[in-house]
Amino acid sequence: LNIKMKVGGQIDPEARYKVNLWGDSRIGDGKLAKVVQSRELVGQDLLDTQGQVVFDQVNHIIGNKSAYYVEVQRTDPTSSLVDYMWTAPVWVEPLSGQHSLLTRGLVGYGSQLLFGLSGK
After folding, report:
1. Helix or strand or coil: residue 1?
2. What pTM was computed for the model?
């Protein structure tokens, strides 16, 4: 899976940001979600990329139900106060029923587009 997100709003170039990608790669296995990737940035880094944060590719096992979401910790440069922001989860579920190879391919490609838009 290719996951990216966008930090919006007013971005202070001096603020520090820690962006964590949380994942539960197999919902229902009794294990909680965990941080699978993390990025540490300053506000200027976000301004340079128009707020976009791109994660390394995440391996997903076909047939597993999984969920991914992003946590952003923003540290104010003047007060050192930390703000926490979260995206809604993005759910990945297997196709149900009988589908043609074409449908499976289109849905698979469509999900990549969806992940590109998530977190906005």
Report:
1. coil
2. 0.76
